[in-house]
Every structure is written in C-alpha cells, then in structure tokens.
Amino acid sequence: MLSTDSRLADFPSLKDRSYLNTAAESLPPLSVLGALLTYWEHKSMGMDGRDFHFAEWDACQAVAAGMLSKDADEIAFCSCASEAFNLLASALKLGGEDEVVVTDLEFPSGATPWLSLPGEPGMRLWENRAGVLELDDLRLLLNERTRLVQVSLVSFLTGHRIDWAPFRDLVRALAPNAVLSVDVTQAFGRVVLDCLDADCIIGSSYKWLLGIHGGCVVAVSKASAERLTTRAGGWYHLANAFDDDRFTRAVPRIGAASFAVGMPNFAAIYALRASMSYLEAVGIGNIAAHADRLVARLHEGLEELGIATLSPPQPGNASGIVAFRHERDAEIHAALLERNIHVMHQAGRLRVAIHGYNQAEDIDWTLEVLRRFGGS
C-alpha cells in the first residue's frame, strides 16, 4: 500500500521499529505536523485568525461528511468520545421505565454515562460468549422499553467486530423506539464502515484516524436530529447564545450541531482534517485490504503456536485488533520491546493493532519472539 520510501517519508518514527499499538495511540503522518504549524500561524494572528479557524472547521466537517456519507450539517466535533456520549445521554432524557443495552466489550466511555443519569434507566448487558456477541442473546434483551442500544463496531478489548446488518435489523424489529448508537473509535480510518445508517456515530480522532488528542467526530442523522439534540449549557451550540432572552432560556441547535457546546479545539480540528485527508488519499478500502492480510497472517501464526485469541478470526469482517492472553505475558512484552516491537500489555492481555503503515515484517518479527515462549 505504501512503498518503503513513502512509508518512512510519511511516518519517519517507524524507522527501525515495529509499531503495533495504534488501538491505543496512532502515529500521525507528517501532514498533521504541517497542519498544526498552520494552526500556530493562524493562532498567532490573534482575533484575525478566527476566520481561518472557523473555515478549517467547515473544511474538516466536509471531509468527515464525505467519509461517513453524510451531509455537512449532520457532522460535529467534540473534544473526546466521553464528552460526546455524555451529551448523547443528556439528549435522551431517560427515565426509570426506559432501558439501555450495552455490551461487555465496550470501552467505559460508551458504557458508563447511562449509569449516572438521575432517571436511573434500566441497564441490560449483552454479554459475549467465547469472544463473540451472539444475536440470540441480544434478542432476549430487546423490547419496546429499549430506548438506546450502544455498541462498539470493533471492541477495544478483543477486536471483535459486530456483523452490522443482521444486528441492525434485529434492533429495529424488536426495539422500534431505540436509538442505535455506535462507537467507531476502533474502526474509523481502518475498516470500511458498514454502520453508516446508525442514528448516532461517535469516533475519537487520535487512534485509527491518525489525528491528535482533543478531537472526536460525531454524526447524527437528520432523521434522528430532533430526538438527539443535547441539553447542555454553553454557547457555540446555542441558537440564542447572544439574544436578549439568553438569561431565561437556552435554545440548542438541532441534531449534530448541538454536540459542539463550546469553543472548538481548533488544533485538533486542523490535525483531523489533515489526517482524514491523508487516509482518503490512500483509500480506506486499500488500507483494509492491506492490513487484513496481515491480521490473517498473525491469526495463522498464533494458531500454529497454540495461542488462542480473545475473539476468533473473522474472515471478510476483520478488524485491526488481535488480542490474546499468555501465562508469560510480561516476559513476552519485555522481549518484544527488546526487539523494538510495540504492542499493548495490560492486565495479562497482549493486544496487537495493525494499521496501513504496518508491514509483513512486523508480524513475522512478532511471531518470531512468541515462538520462544510457546503456547499458553
């Protein structure tokens, strides 16, 4: 996908190391540095720079809209996924008679905002079986009281990827009043998204999108805009922020625009526009085709070593994450670092994350280290 020369030109920090930890932190391309320097130039203009800042917001919004097959007014930006999910919670106005379904493969930002709501909605947990979220288990959790079904398209924990179409169809059929929200943080920029018909899409900027901290894409469909309008104070998202009645009522803009509650993090917006433009130029389909082959290569090598992954391989529906446990996990992690191979090690779990800038050698060198330790 990237030649040896273009890969190191775009990602010079990859020289002499294998970076397989994008699910935690990505390596941004040099074009992102250029965007941040442009932001600095505009910020150094003081108030005169604001015209450039808001123009960059519009440009970033247009790129994100194109990648998500949305209109620009269906896109907004938050500072992080946690902020976006808490704002979503404010929009839903859930009460004790309502139910929320989340999975046990969720990151806390998508699973916990509903636990702190004053209305105390009922929580239903869709639990995985052997690393897979089975629709037969979800079927038992859905009903007319279900107001929200929140999932990650790709699990940060295991790499399991939801088979979207049958999942969506089941939710729409058995929970007709439910908002369908999807966290694409571990998918956006790495896989061809098939969840674009969700009511709400949320994805952080600093992982597979190759941006920096402080950014999050939020997409709210026009069909869901009225019921997914947040109820928060602020100013940028308010239609009457400076009107005469501003001290007696707060009137939010509708839908996605209501998620941009304050002065945007323009540095992150500049970086995100550059990183998404880079990904678009390479092509998400090209990234997926290249990286999926490496994922399959890793699964095959782990199987040969007798190492079971936390979620089984998903040919044709792969993600960028392969996770597994090993009784000698700490030793393995130390040995990988000695070879300058970077993966995630946490709570006995080793997680390998494979993006478009990775190569077959990264996988082969990782398996070479693992062969010294055998199966778990």
What does this 3D model show about the protein?
With 376 residues, the protein is α/β, with parallel strands linked by helices. It has two domains: 4-29 and 283-371, Alpha-Beta Complex (Aspartate Aminotransferase, domain 1); 31-281, Type I PLP-dependent aspartate aminotransferase-like (Major domain) (Aspartate Aminotransferase, domain 2). Helices cover 35% and strands 14% of the residues. It has eleven helices and twelve strands. The protein has helices at 4-10, 30-43, 50-67, 81-92, 108-111, 135-139, 164-174, 266-282, 284-304, 329-338, 360-371; strands spanning 18-19, 75-78, 99-103, 122-126, 146-152, 179-183, 200-204, 216-220, 321-325, 341-342, 344-346, 349-353. The strands form three sheets. Strands 2-8-7-6-5-3-4 form a seven-stranded mixed sheet, with helices on both faces. A three-stranded antiparallel sheet has the order 9-12-11, with helices on one face. Strands 1-10 form a two-stranded parallel ribbon. A hairpin with a 2-residue loop joins strand 11 and strand 12. Helix 3 packs parallel to helix 8 (266-282) and helix 9 runs parallel beside helix 11 (360-371). The longest helix has 21 residues, at 284-304.
